[in-house]
User: Fold this.
Amino acid sequence: MYISILAASAGLLAVAQAAKAPIPSATVTVNTAQKYQVYDGTGVAEAFQRSLVLHRLNTAAQSLALDYLFSRTKGAGFTILRNGLGSSPDDPFDLMKSIAPTAPKSNSSALKYTALPRQDEYQVWLSLQAMERGVSTIYADAWSADGYMKTSGTDFNGGYLCGVTNATCASGDWRQSYANKIVKYIQDYAAAGVVVDYVGFLNEPDLNTTYASMQSNGQQAADFIKILAPTLKQAGLTTKIACCDGSGWEQNRERLTGIQQAGQEYNLGLVTAHGYSSPPGAPFATDKNVWQTEWSTFDNINYAWYQTGSQSEGLTWANNIQHAFAVSNVNGFLYWWGAANTTDNQSLIFINNTAEVSVTKRLWAHAHFGSRFIRKGATRIGAVSSAGSALNVTAFANKDGSTAVQIINNGVNTESVTLTGLTIAKGATVQTFLTDNGNDLTAGTAKVKGNKATAEVPGKSFLSFIV
Assistant:
């Protein structure tokens, strides 16, 4: 009996001691003097008629989905919209129709333009809706030139633009015609009230695919850039050229190197790459702004923040985005589709029929890096966590004097995190926003003492400090 009581008492003492065990602490130090790249924004696409799917939602569901994507108060606050510049001769679902679908008599004949088909598959409508909610940058990207301009004769199954190095066609050189078509497309958007800030003429040019695709190496891209640049200028357009949306980071590095060797980098306004074939890695050797412009996964749709650490969970994408900014020095980060009727993870929001809108946790991972907290023109600044912590950290200084600090806890334990290095005005409130399995950007406040702010960051979570 006496032994049993002792054993019970020892067990209770152990429980009490465990309950009183202090939460592990960590320090995140921000260095405002250590400056890195300028922030352009985050974004999505609704190409291949996914803008049409959005348009078919009823009014309430449509507003909900658009707010989730673009609102600074209700959603992710995306500020970049990537539209698809069509090349198909017709427009059944999943294709993007060209504004010059019929081949002219020859490569020197004027192209026969048509009006933007269904407002460019409702991408014009989407652009205007997105701009009302805060989108500031429109990027139009062509997956291919029209088939009659290519060695393959179709806008799908790869092939090369007639007239570039090693791409000779019996019909002649079609580079100028392709440039003229791009200019007309931009002008059509301007007439509808949408300024196209950047235009791309390639998408994943390292691949030959069954959908719209056009192959190109760096030299061949340069061969077209030297035609497109003066054509844009002659038309009085300020739209800048983007290239080359390679299927992966290293695939795009090859094309950028080729452009540089051909002496055409100066005509670029933006370097663009995807994350599929190889994820964002070492920064590109360029003084141009760099965006990761498309990335997603294709496994069954996953709404979770964290379960097993799979490639499609929210926490995984939080780390992907942070890595791209912190290691690859990107200025912008774009997912693939924002909202779509897909049953895999190509979109951040699942929409269906006229009323279904279901949000994945990946959306909220993007929201921490969106315009709710980080504004266009902000500068990434130094931020490090104390040794031994499981925290990944970044920080951005906004032009208005506010600072957004992103802290991802990849460990399983809660950590008490103290933020230092910033000036906190006397009596000021430091807001926090938490995302994990049970929270979607849930607002809170940090404990402030002098120029230090402290908050608990649960295991497998993402907390943003806003100072």
Q: What stands out?
A: The CA atoms of residues 185 and 321 lie 31 Å apart. The radius of gyration is 25 Å. Confidence is low (pLDDT under 50) at residues 1-10, 12-18.
